[in-house]
């Protein structure tokens, strides 16, 4: 057994292959014993032949046995001999491979010292050469293919050449004097003797030969699977073929672990991982900037990396930016969609055997350091880079070095450099650990963070000398170059992070791959916000609503640290003001004043290592040097916006290139062989904020002129909004600079309250050409407490009752500003926000106005605003409020379904004062109609219900008919136009109005009503209980017959109908009985329209507001 183990060294096979070979030999030995017994026992005495005389029995048996052997084993190879060859040949192949591969495995497994002497250096070079060769892979594949071919060959020999598929147990034996075999049966009968024989061992022999065939088949299948797997792995990862990798991954996955069994090395790895786990648990970078001193129970959130970490958008190479002139499109440049980029799936994908020297580029706050920390933490928890069969690369040791902590070091060796790792367990590397690192560099990961913070990054040596030994001391920049170029620790993985400003210094280094971190996509920002608030789902929804509804904040949050700052700031404000009912902080200047300081203090070189307190962030006073820097940034920002350039030339930011608020873009070609540096602010809103700081330092006269000249220019809109907030702290700048620009012109608009009333004229503000100016000023005024009181007094003096902001491109954040400005102007009774797409979040802001006790709002138009069911829910809650005085609500074209209709139905049946509800052009079905029917059946005060262009059928008409038939129903107007109502629905409605209901207007144009339906309605309107005054049946399928029924009904003395519209039907009789009847009805005082062409048709009565 020991000799067998020596011939088949386990280290040359993986554990499964080695076990399979041993099992192969064991099965071969078993088969050999079985077949030897079968062959030795099988003799002529095992044959039983009939027809022989007793004295000739042995002769007959012998001759028949020879005939049996000649027919079924024509080559005379005994079965036990075949079995021996079958198992022995494959065993010899395995043994030969093991002897050949053993020396290579031994060289890879035995580390040598590296003391700098020629002999050890030669041994080390030989080991490296062995590790990078492919002999082991080739030898293994060779023996694998030889065994595979041999197995297939033996199966073919057994079944097709040497033996029958089944050894028969019966055999006919013939003897004759002349020939050994008769030519035909008649000859046999005449010239030979026939004997019928039986082989008693044939069944057993057949069974065991089939067993041999089955074992060969299973063995070949296993070999084929392993062969395909190895070749596929080698095709996918070329380095898999290298001796060291093949040994480590395929032959002996525990090979590296056997090295780690050395106590000091294993202890070093374990201690390093434990330190990483502990240090990365509660990071300083994730502590709230609003932490209070000990003893003060501040409501702050300190996060853990596992809790908050969100994947980033990381793309190969550098990103390009195309800033358009449209500000809205400019903001969309920042948060890249995860679908738009060929981004990495995980951080683990940054490194592999083909890309070991990697450069990661990213602007300040984009998450470079946090990525490195997360990568290390996952490695420490054995989540990534482990020695598994499907791992693309693995590491036994990892080192995390920050350039800014190395600036004070002089010349040092690589060994000394590695002890400076952020998570090093000691101040020196043990000899055993150091030796392992030198001999197995492919298992080492070195993360070098913040190359831009290295003081000598501009002094990189063009052609550094080759290292004489691994212990040689050199300046850090040379050590770094040796690592990246592979002159030290060749095969080690080195990942460098840097801001784009330092790329020029490492342009000559041969990185295998360059990546850029783009930050968060919109989906990832949302994920981050909800992770930030944790279990407080309500707070998460509130923060996400606020951020997502404001494109300025949303696009700013593509930088992860800005998401952290924004969430921290908003969460702090929300928690402090939650008792007052504040759910959506709306002053953008307040947020940015904090966010800019937090961002700058966290990423400016002179502050990032200082401990900053809450006072640093909330105080308006800045250190003198910071104030000077901000003033310079303000000038650059202002000039850039003024000139319409978001990309700043390098010469304009001289001495400010390293500012945390700038992002270095790829250089721009500026002529033949000339390139110009380019920069931009990390975000457009940051540039706009600093531009507003520059404006706030102007004189009153200069600023007044600037504001009046540029207030209508869209590119200055947010700048002036920030300016208004900053002016609260500027005593020399009066608020009137902005408030004096508030428009005072008004216009008149006709509003129709009820179907039986004349249209009323109301005075509206602002006028059509001043709407955008009014919105801009509302947003500015909302930023300043001083301006709010001034504007409220000024608006009280303007004679208007109607706020008209149709088609102003309002956002949810804009709605917040408008509500804050007009909520205390008591005379406002009408508000029209048609065609703005404010969404459910904007609707939530408008609902605050409805709930305000000082508000007298009675008429609200929210047509075409994409409110959805969520917005309908907010409105339902608002109109149930006791302070709400709303009478008329227009919700046309808002994608409201039955769910939203249910919310509204519950509201109008619950002490609601709403009289008119228009839900036209939505997605309401019969289910929604049922909810509304139940509401108006429940003593609600609704007078007009408009459901034009929904998805109602006869079932919905039936629900509504039953409701208006109830004595509690006060409905006067019902519009069911442009639905799918047929004669059946018309019958339900006719029965209702025939029963003393209060309905006055019934509008059913563009349905599927025919003469039958017209007849039902005609019978109803001639009843003295019917109080209907107006009936619209245009655009249906009514012919002269139906018109005759209606005309006869109108001519009845009990009919109270005053208006009938039959335009665009199939009434063709212009001189017959139908026409005469209609003319007679008209003579009775009923207005009838039936023959006006559709192109010139205008409804004589309409239930919607008319501008």
TrEMBL record:
GO molecular function, one term: ATP binding
Record's keyword terms, sorted: ATP-binding, Leucine-rich repeat, Membrane, Nucleotide-binding, Repeat, Transmembrane, Transmembrane helix
Domain NACHT intervals: 356-502
Transmembrane segments: 16-35, 80-100, 207-232
Superkingdom classification of source: Eukaryota
Keyword match rRNA-binding: no
Record bears the keyword Transmembrane: yes
Annotated protein name in UniProt: NACHT, LRR and PYD domains-containing protein 3
Protein species of origin: Stylophora pistillata
Lineage: Eukaryota, Metazoa, Cnidaria, Anthozoa, Hexacorallia
Gene: Nlrp3
